[in-house]
Amino acid sequence: MKTLHFRGVDPYKINKKSIAIVGSRRMTRYGRDVVDRFVSEFVANGVTTISGFMYGVDTEVHQKTVDYGGKTIAVFGCGLNVIYPSENKKLYDQIIEGGGSIVSEYEDDAKPHLWKFPQRNKIVAGLATLGVLVIEAGEKSGSLITAGLARKMGKKVYAVPGAITSSVSVGCNNLIKSKNAFMATSAADILKIKPTVRSLPSTVHDLNDIENRIYKILQLEPMNLDEIALKIGGDIVEIGSTLSIMSLKNPITESGGKYYLSE
Question: Which CATH number is 19's domain given?
């Protein structure tokens, strides 16, 4: 590993138990939920997260780690004086304040270029002691470059399976199918510990009959308004109004036109 420029804590002091997490810049709601689940478990077990500070999964990994009180290492594809993307300025400060590290192999004022991002992936993989976890990756995702580099370094690669209908899950599913990655459905698969059991109540207090029926069918899978109306029957206007009320009560949440159970 080459000498790195850094801000915050020396990355080699906090990477003794660390995992690189990479994925699509076009993160879906599913990807966001997966990041939240894995990162919360990693932080609870004293694992430092490592990612590339870009849009999507990278940013979500760093932000969730900070939110949960953990340490994270952000690897730049530019100099440390150039915050890219610029909207991550607050996150940059939070990482340092939280005892994490911002690192780069480039001089402090080096500008970002497309060729630098695949090059910085070897640092993302190299710093990780537990391996690389891929969460949502398209067929030609840059995350697959990181996975390939990790394999060449003799590090373990893990991938979270996704829907076969999702374009951002093709890369992950192919990694698993080709046996180039171990399938991971929880941090326990990587840490070799007993998994944390998360369960949702079968019903929620203070919900009326129609609200409880909606809640129960959303336990099967997220659905849009038309799908919910088809499943339970009834007037679509009334169901739409009920969904709005349930969102305010917080047993459910809406994203991208679909309704999900709140965790």
Answer: 3.40.50.450
Give per-residue pLDDT as tens, 88-115: 999 999 999 999 999 999 999 999 887 7
Report pTM: 0.78
Question: What is residue 168's DSSP assignment?
Answer: G
Strands 101-104 and 132-135 come out as: unpaired
**Together in a domain, 29 and 61:** yes
Check whether the bond before 112 is cis (ω within 30° of 0). Answer: no
CA angle 39, 44, 45 (to 5 degrees): 100
56 lies in the same domain as 89: yes
Q: 25 and 140 share a domain?
A: yes
Task: State whether the Cα torsion 31-126-108-69 is positive or negative.
Answer: positive
